[in-house]
Amino acid sequence: NLRLGVLASGRGSNLQAIMDAIDGGRLPAEVAVVISDYADARALERARSRNIPAFHINPAAFPHKGDYEEAVVDTLKKHAVDLVCLAGYMRLVGAAMLEAFPNRIMNIHPALLPAFPGLHAQQRALEYGVRYSGCTVHFVDEGMDTGPIILQAVVPVLPDDTPETLADRILEQEHRIYPEAIALFAAGRLEIRGKRVYIREG
Ligand code: GAR
């Protein structure tokens, strides 16, 4: 079984979708460990309620960002993680993690990359006036939301949308495509060639 390490800063609804896909037999994997940079992240509670090891690692407790990341990597390694899944993890991944898990870190972003990378993607899409937005699952590289794209899903932007209603519509698709992307990885069906990810026949 593919062992997942999930990094989450907050609510953890994508973590929940991953755990539900595992329970539902749609994802042959297990969540080996959950790590948050916030002590009160609901993601930690969701993990603990399933007896999944869950740790708060406080970035402020480390003098250098590199030391914080080493601590995260140690914890991931200790739990024999094969794939790192960022699920609402609100920090840029640095060299320590990228070197420890080359092409083995995925992220979900609430926009159609390369549009609207970074924070507040849904609000910025709304303000820009795009007719469609969506979400992207991608491998993580050293840039901000720039890594090879695995799956995307599109949703319409509606006239009455607020950032919240648009975010909710996008979130529904996140919960669908994130487990799907991880399942493709678990099946060994993803091949990265340069910037492009090819999905092999199942
Ligand atoms: C999700 O919409 C995710 O795409 C986004 O944060 C939310 C986390 O929700 N991630 C980013 O914006 C990353 N820059 P969740 O904690 O309920 O999964």
UniProtKB/TrEMBL annotation:
Q: Which superkingdom?
A: Bacteria
Respond yes or no to whether keyword Nucleotidyltransferase is given for this record. Answer: no
Q: Where is this site: Raises pKa of active site His?
A: D145
* Every Formyl transferase N-terminal domain range: 3-182
Cellular compartments per GO CC: cytoplasm
Keyword presence, Transferase: yes
Q: Which residues bind N(1)-(5-phospho-beta-D-ribosyl)glycinamide?
A: G12, S13, N14
Q: Please list the residues that make up the active site.
A: H109
Enzyme Commission (EC) number: 2.1.2.2
Per the record, the GO terms for biological process are: 'de novo' IMP biosynthetic process
Question: What keyword terms does UniProt attach to this protein?
Answer: Purine biosynthesis, Transferase
What's the protein name?
Phosphoribosylglycinamide formyltransferase
- State the species of origin: Desulfofundulus thermobenzoicus
